[in-house]
Design a protein that fits this description.
The chain has 344 residues and is an alpha/beta fold. Helices cover 36% and strands 22% of the residues. The protein folds into 2 domains: 234 residues, Spore Coat Polysaccharide Biosynthesis Protein SpsA, Chain A (Alpha-Beta Complex); 72 residues.
Amino acid sequence: METLVSVVVPVLNVAHLLPRCLDSLLAQTHRPLEIIVVDDGSTDDSAEVMRRYEQRHSEVHLVSQRHRGVGPARNAGLSIAKGAFVSMVDADDWVEPEFIADLLAIAMDTGADVVVGGFSFDFLGLEVPFPFLPRTHSMTGPEAAELSIHMTRFPAFAWNKLYRRDLFRADDPPFPSIYYEDLATTPRILLRASEVALTRTVYYHYCLRGDGITGNFRAKNVFSFAAAIDILRRDLTESGLWEAWLPSYRRLLRQALAMMTLSVLLQRNHIPLGVRLPLLFRFGRLLKALSLPPQDGRRLRAVRLSKSGAESSRQRRPVSAAVAVGGRRTPGSWRPARRRPAPS
């Protein structure tokens, strides 16, 4: 029996780009396949596009919720995914026809829990492959997890990967409701893997656009980046990895300051000129505070978004939830998972 793969696609106001994404997924050479498209409160014609595709294609499964962000949208899709493996594709991107088939074949051949594929940045009609992926074909989960916080070497994107679904758990929604949610999540998921396989072949096309998160840059982006780092910091502390990862973590802080400085001062954005330098000084102070382990007793916890109105078009009940920094741990709150032992 062939292996079912689930693909989760969060959607927000991209009606003009969504057909390209869905057509590339329907063109996948692998079957069986379920495409879970999550409408995160779109106000354009995205919902109509999704309904049209669902009516015409049995692989497409529609979920809708009030606007809660890409993280909770992914979590809602993951909560009803039935595949043995799952992947995540952003609605304004597209993938090659062999994306699922080739990454799944690598997973089956190697026993890897996660397979990472090559990707390109697409803009102005150009496709620029990301050149810095490691040349190794395999890493342990902890090795890949630590490397994933190296922003220019093995970035922690959620979308160029195929995951064994049991790395995600219903009581542990992986993504927070902030920008840069990948950085706050991917290291934790990779840490649970026994083995991570990698291919530099380009399967995923990340399409840069002026009205996306990076193209619509505001002060909120800066503070969201700090929030993502804070979640990672607390994750490392609770997992007992703070000391072991400290050199890599400090490098991340340096890269974060450089990235935000370039984005605030040189990138076209919506931040008033007189606010830019004070904003960077404030971000620098935040990073200084984040360079130390947390001492406030607050923990990562799962938050169910009860007013999200999450609904599915089929007989499945999606759960809209997020990871957040809350009070001291209480029974049932989030706790880091133990790493699965390597197969003997």
